[in-house]
């Protein structure tokens, strides 16, 4: 499906109202109660019936480093209730505390893989280093073992069904704090010295770094390029304003996602309830930054 998101529209609602909506938004609009631009519905049960016989393996990467190990239990337990239920899911957990990975009852066909990694000193580096580690795990293992991959933050809980409707070649996730802001308010990297630079007036959406996905091949291209750009910036003594999230936004501007998930696929408990949606499928939990982060 071709995307034409490079319009000069400045507000997501305008984009949604225009003809540039991708199929999923229409579904999302239906299922959430956004009543803009709904043209077509997709029956989620029918979609499941299409995807299930394909016997897919969905990998998800989750980092639980330092104190973030505390979020892992709820993430996994709620994922078992709501995330790609009845699919083969491989959780790839990256942690410096392998022995503290909680035991959670997994449904048949679902597995946990634990990868021991060192703890870096700055939260910015921990977050950004995910790009490189995902690249490596795809090279070493996932290219053989998985069809799709999601890369998710651990400090979140599932609350509602998240299914095959989210699968696509390259999937971006609209940031829950930016869906109703105009493009000039997006916190893209604005210094031309950074490889994540996005000039004023450009940009489709502000994507969150805490969730992206797609086929293993597409995600590989994404993480490899973001890792290269992070390294190039480091060599030039510059760190993008929101680290890997800035690089992800750059990548998805110039490599359009084939599906964009609405904020119901990653909400933020801090935003509480709003009247724009009926359903929250996954949501960031409240956390005390000063307490959980290494160098806050
Ligand atoms: C809702 C919100 O405002 N999100 C922003 C915030 O994300 P967050 O505040 O959600 O970032 P975060 O602290 O959750 O870090 C991202 C992820 O890195 C991992 N991790 C991080 C630190 C650590 O000590 N151990 C560890 O394992 C863990 O998987 C975590 O979920 O900051 C990011 C910048 O990086 C982005 O700007 C996000 O948009
Ligand atoms: Mn987070």
Automatic annotation (TrEMBL):
Binding-site residues for UDP-N-acetyl-alpha-D-galactosamine, renumbered to this chain: 63-65, 68, 153-155
Amino acids binding an alpha-L-fucosyl-(1->2)-beta-D-galactosyl derivative: 175, 187, 245, 268
Question: What's this protein's family per the entry?
Answer: Belongs to the glycosyltransferase 6 family.
Cofactor(s) essential for the protein: Mn(2+)
GO BP annotations of the record are:
carbohydrate metabolic process
Q: For this UniProt entry, which residues form the secretion signal?
A: none
Q: Which residues form a coiled coil?
A: none
Q: Where is the active site?
A: 245 (nucleophile)
Keyword annotations from UniProtKB, A to Z: Glycosyltransferase, Manganese, Membrane, Metal-binding, Signal-anchor, Transferase, Transmembrane, Transmembrane helix
Please give one Gene Ontology molecular function term for this protein. Answer: metal ion binding
Kindly state what the record says about how the cofactor is bound: Binds 1 Mn(2+) ion per subunit.
One term under GO cellular component: vesicle
Q: Which organism is it from?
A: Paramormyrops kingsleyae
Protein name (database record): Globoside alpha-1,3-N-acetylgalactosaminyltransferase 1 (FORS blood group)
Question: Where is Mn(2+) annotated to bind?
Answer: 153, 155
Q: What is the lineage of its organism?
A: Eukaryota, Metazoa, Chordata, Craniata, Vertebrata
Q: Which membrane topology term applies here?
A: Single-pass type II membrane protein
Which InterPro entries does the record cross-reference, listed alphabetically? Glyco_trans_6, Nucleotide-diphossugar_trans
Superkingdom is Eukaryota
Subcellular location as annotated = Membrane
């Amino acid at each position: 499906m071709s995307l034409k998101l490079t319009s000069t529209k400045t507000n997501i609602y305008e984009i949604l109202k225009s003809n540039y909506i991708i199929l999923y938004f229409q579904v999302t609009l239906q299922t959430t109660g956004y009543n803009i631009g709904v043209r077509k519905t997709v029956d989620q049960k029918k979609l499941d019936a299409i995807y299930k016989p394909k016997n897919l393996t969905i990998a998800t990467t989750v980092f639980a480093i330092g104190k973030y190990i505390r979020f892992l239990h709820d993430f996994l337990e709620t994922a078992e209730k709501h995330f790609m239920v009845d699919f083969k899911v491989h959780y790839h957990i990256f942690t410096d505390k392998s022995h503290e990975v909680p035991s959670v009852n997994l449904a048949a066909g679902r597995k946990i893989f634990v990868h021991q990694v060192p703890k870096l000193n700055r939260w910015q580096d921990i977050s950004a280093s995910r790009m490189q580690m995902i690249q490596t795990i795809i090279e070493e293992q996932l290219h053989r073992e998985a069809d799709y991959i999601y890369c998710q933050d651990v400090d979140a809980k599932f609350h509602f069904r998240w299914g095959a409707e989210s699968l696509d070649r390259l999937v971006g996730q609209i940031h829950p704090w930016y869906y109703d802001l105009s493009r000039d308010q997006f916190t893209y990297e604005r210094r031309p010295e950074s490889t994540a630079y996005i000039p004023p007036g450009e940009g489709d959406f502000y994507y969150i770094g805490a969730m992206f996905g797609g086929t293993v091949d597409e995600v590989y291209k994404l993480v490899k390029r973001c890792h290269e750009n992070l390294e190039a910036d480091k060599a030039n003594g510059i760190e993008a304003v929101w680290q890997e999230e800035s690089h992800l936004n750059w990548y998805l501007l110039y490599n359009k996602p084939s599906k964009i998930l609405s904020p119901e696929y990653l909400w933020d408990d801090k935003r509480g309830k709003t009247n724009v949606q009926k359903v929250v499928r996954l949501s960031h939990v409240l956390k005390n930054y000063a307490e959980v982060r290494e160098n806050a």
